[in-house]
Amino acid sequence: MIIVLKPGASQEQLDHIVSKVHELGLKTMISQGVERTIIGVIGEEDILRITPLEVFPGVEKVLPVLKPYKLVSREFKPESTVVAVKGVRIGSRSIQIAAGPCAVENREMLFATAKAVKAAGAGMIRGGAFKPRTSPYTFQGLGEEGLKYLREVSDATGMPAVTECMDPRDVALVESYADIIQVGARNMQNITLLRELGQVKKPILLKRGMMSTVKELLMSAEYILSNGNFNVILCERGIRTFEDATRNTLDLSMVPLVKRLSHLPVFVDPSHGTGVRELIEPMSIAAIAAGADGLIIEVHINPEAALSDGAQSLTPDEFARLMKGLAPVAKAVGRELQ
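Now predict its structure.
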């Protein structure tokens, strides 16, 4: 249920309405826009149907939210959300690029790659300290040691660090080092993890599950928002279909669809979405044209020696060429690279 307040409704009126809703045993989330303040009500909506909230001072109208996701929807927040982290604004006119190795392998490699991607125009450094791999015998990441390297590189370059958290027990640890916490495709429906991430102050990059629908992605985001964290970035990273020529099928139709359904910013991961180095550039261009707010791209100083996903990692030179090619596309759709 959504309670829309009248233009100019006072803080006292807002507080009174929130207090009454809480007395009914329901939870509230407040969205203060440029023209309107909206109160999202979470809980058993049948209680509200017998409570005449329309007569409360300051209330313009009370509307049901027909979609199963409430706080994520544009019905709750018509304005697009901008997630700000260390001077980077995600969801604004500027398109943001996060780049770096799939896995943090060692300090030297991470520093070299970070310097290269920053010189090419990337605004964020990405790298996995914990790696959920298909095989238990492949490289699983450096854990906290990798997080320390990421923090050191982020501080040295000024680029916010993006890294994955796999386990609810590691949330506090990852939060202490990372600027943006990633939820990987395999964990998109790890409800315990999502609830924990709803309690943190850091932005969350939520990747779509490899066999998940758009509705399921938005419902996963709802878990995070309903626990208090509204700084969520959605990410399309390809879904599994019958096609085997690419690692996954990159569903770029998801970008304009989600931006119509939700106020949250949307990233695209063409590296995992295709798994083919030569396809990353054209799919990055297509993602920007489709309305993506940013890209997350795997770059390695020496892909041949990469311990994870070398086949889909760009070299620094390839990444620099990609960045040059993205600028005119961004301009053509009324935006700009960071």
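The chain has eleven helices and 15 strands.
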